[in-house]
Amino acid sequence: MTEEYGLLEVEEDEAVGDEWEEIDVADTEADRIARKQDREFLEFRKRIKNTEQFKVEASVFDDATLGALYKLVQDGYIDAFGGPISTGKEANVYTALGPDGEVAVKVYRINASDFKQMRDYLDGDPRFEGIGADKKKVVVAWTKKEFANLSRARKAGVRVPEPIAVERNVLVMEYLGGDENRAKRLNEVTVENPETAYEVVREYARRLYRAGLIHGDLSEYNIVVHQGELAVLDLGQAVTVHHPNSREFLERDCHNVAAFFRRQGFEVSDDEMLEYVTEPEPEPSGDVE
Question: CA 283 to CA 192: how far, in whole Å?
Fold first, then answer.
């Protein structure tokens, strides 16, 4: 059966634009929990570190990260932990059970993250002025940035995982997948209707742009098919349109997407996608029906 890849409706009552709240990177309750090392936390740390799927991840689960997970459990966002969904240079993603079903838990590494690459995206973003060179603050900012970007994208009508909670370097969000496996990326499936899929992806890129965001790493590797819909992942690096490298990032996004769909047999140029994404919204006509 040919996929239709339907678009989401834009939430008309939600104003979107380029206003941003400053993101706080000060110590959180998770840091205080890790410093206090009370009996309940020590029991939680022992239980997690003895769990089979976490044994090989000692570099990911330092005490402050465990403090963040402990706080998320205390706050009712996580009831039980599952196995890994994916592992990467900057973050690991795990399944977990939340009060309303399965969720995804993304844990950014404080020590192993690519500090320089993160700075390239954060520098020039008005939300992160004055963070400095403190690596912990950069990673915490990056995690909170992804939460803010996901929230902004959903308001703009872009299908992304719903952000649920953020604590320090841990992000809880909607799990896109079935009972056994995560949703498949575009590079992992046969795209039966490439023209329609392309139209959905370019429209989501345009909606992000009109909401003041540029994905910055858009490609077939972070677009998935979930329940007949296309969804965009990994908005941690997304920047505002005022970022000094925003045009470069946008042109790269357009090239990656257009090149992928050309390989699927649909002829589209990089410039055509760029023109569509950046086309200004029409001015109100003032006509009264």
Answer: 36
